[in-house]
Amino acid sequence: MARLDLAEMSLRQVNGELQALEAGVNDLDWRIANPQGAHAVAVGLTAPIRLTIEGHVGFYCGGMNQNAEIKVEGHAGPGLAENMMSGAVRVTGNASQMAGATGHGGLLVVEGDTSSRCGISMKGIDIVVKGSVGHMSAFMAQKGHLVVCGDAGRDLGDSIYEAILFVRGKVESLGADCIEKDMRPEHREVLAGLLAEAGIDADPSEFRRFGSARKLYNFNIDHADQY
Amino acid sequence: MTVDPRTLRSSSSFPPHVIAEIQRAADQGLYEIRGFGAKRALPTFDDLVFLGASTSRYPLEGYREKCETKVVLGSRFAKNPIELKIPITIAGMSFGALGANAKEALGRAATAMGTTTTTGDGGMTPEERESSETLVYQLLPSRYGMNPDDLRKADAIEVVIGQGAKPGGGGMLLGQKITERVAGMRTLPEGIDQRSACRHPDWTGPDDLEIKIHELREITGWRVPIYIKIGATRVTYDVQLAVKAGADVIVLDGMQGGTAATQDVFIEHVGIPTLPAVRQAVEALQGLDMHREVQLIVSGGIRSGADVAKALALGADAVAIGSAAMVALGCNKPVFVEDYQALGTEPGCCHHCHTGRCPVGITTQDPELEQRLPPDVGARLVRNYLSTMVLELQTLARACGKSHVHNLEPEDLAALTIEAAAMAGVPLAGTHWIPGR
Q1: Which residues of A touch B152 (CB under 8 A)?
Q2: Looking at CA atoms only, how far is residue A90 from chain B in angstroms?
Q3: What is the tally of structural domains in chain A?
Q4: So what's the ipTM on this one?
Q5: How many CB pairs under 8 A join A and B?
Q6: Chain B neighbors of A85, CB-CB under 8 A
Q7: Which range marks the domain in which residue B306 is found?
Q8: Nearest to A78 by CA among A90, A62, A95
Q9: Of the residues A40, B54, B383, B425, which has the fewest C-beta atoms closer than 10 A?
């Protein structure tokens, strides 16, 4: 196992070393010590490594990740795993605003809570939050799944496109064009798979499903009051 | 019975086009959405003239003495700054708004001339990357098509905060242009009206932007320049904040800047013209001692070598053209007139980019219409146009005695109107008066 210490190396050195790894790398297990809330830790990775970050991170940890499995042992700042393409990012604590923003793929797991706009503009990423999510989560969400095991703040799924939202707890309010939908067996199956992948023990039958009413897809003056 | 035309007097407050718009709104209950840029009369570079050399200045021979046009962009932080052979770049325009042939033509022309072209909302197409030797990749609020592989293929990254046609507004692509390919690139269902976000999803202010730019540099190994593009509004503050956020290059788009589709009320009533915006941006950079350190690209209503020369004389490092490049490709050309008429317009007045029925095959995804613009033909047209602009620029620079176009300066200019004098900060012609100073 290789260990990179941010107390001794610059962020550029640490990221550069990880970014230089290629698909067939022998040493798959890596650790970053002393992140101390640094921004842009482990961004732009492409190799299928397992990386553990020993502490809290600032903005954009795991940004644009491809293939790597990143675990943050602590809390994460805004924009966690933004625009992730594939791989996985897991945070053992809480995540700030905009977790998983614009993600195209991969799995983001937050074992604590997330702040507002979790999954904003998500484009295919799967996000599983063991706790609760703040307001405007899944805002303009295009594709993928957001699973919330706790509660969701106001205006969930505002202006949502084709993303699918599962919430176990209370939903303070739904945003424009977001509605509750039937929870059919195929949805429970998808949800069970996501929970299993995230390692979270929860009963899919306790969740509700939300998605787009698709009324705002083409402008209609009679819907103007919803904008 | 005939009416004596001398007795007819239309209202200045309600001229025919205003009456037509009110009645259209009454019929449809929706604001007008259109393409192109501002149509109202605005103070422009036409209101400035050059003071050619005479006894007090020494001109250069027009056809013999060199007048350099090379520009380096992104030397502040990037390991690999961009070297332009000419100070005219192609502005960001999306695949989706434009068809693939138009994008390819622009890329080939830019490559032939040693300049850059720019992606747009929806991401980078392989054809675009292949045809453009030096390609600027836009990071837009929608993040449609954004992926790190393309980011690493880019020669520069442009963080788009706003554009001159709609500062404060997001992109818009109506359902009729959302084909299978466009929808796939944007991860959206086919045929829906696509309204891009007006602000970025993962940062909310200049302090966050600084961190975002740091992330982009980390992902790309600090190799490529990072541009920040702003629509011209509160230019002084926006330029100062862009510098503070770590921009290598600032792209400033005045209100004459075009768009493929947005609300007419946005195009005509939001933002300030390019003329005052350039001066404000240059003064802001000078105030920070960053003029020429952070390069300034100006766009919005640049149409000729004279416009380029005036923008450079006011302190810009380069310009970008969008609408003018499309006009060079054939936009509003009097051909296929019946197709213009089918859209309810005529050549010279068309702003129907939003419909996807572009009569000359530029702003369309329709394969039949696109055939009207073969990429090699389009590339030649744009290359010729760029060459002409450069010759015009050099002609004016030499006449002012400049061996490099960057040596043009405000002292070479005079204004023809009080408004232009005040906005550009150059004296009213025949006086030493700059209003407000």
Answers
A1: 44
A2: 19
A3: 1
A4: 0.96
A5: 102
A6: 147-148
A7: 31-406
A8: A95
A9: B54
